[in-house]
Amino acid sequence: MAEKSFSIKIMTPERDFYEGEALMAEFNTSEGEIGVYPAHIPMTVILKPGVLTLTQEDGKKTAALHTGFAQIMPDGITFLAEAAEWPGEIDIARAEAARERAEERIREHKEDTDIARAEIALQRAIARIETLK
Amino acid sequence: MASMRDIKRRKSSIQSTGQITKAMKLVSTVKLQKAKVKAEQTRPYSNCMYDTVQSILERCDTVQHPYLQGGDSPKKAVIVLTSNRGLAGGYNSNVVKLITRGELANEDLDIYAVGKKGKDALARAGYNIKMDSSQIVEEPTYADAAALGRVVLSSFAKGEIGEIWIAYTSFKNTVMHEPRLMKLLPVEREEGERQLEAPMNFEAEEESILDMLIPNYITSLIYGGLLEASASENGARMQAMDSATSNAEEMIEDLTLLYNRARQGSITQELTEIIAGASAIS
Question: How would CATH label the architecture of B27-191+207-240?
Answer without folding.
Answer: 3-Layer(aba) Sandwich (3.40)
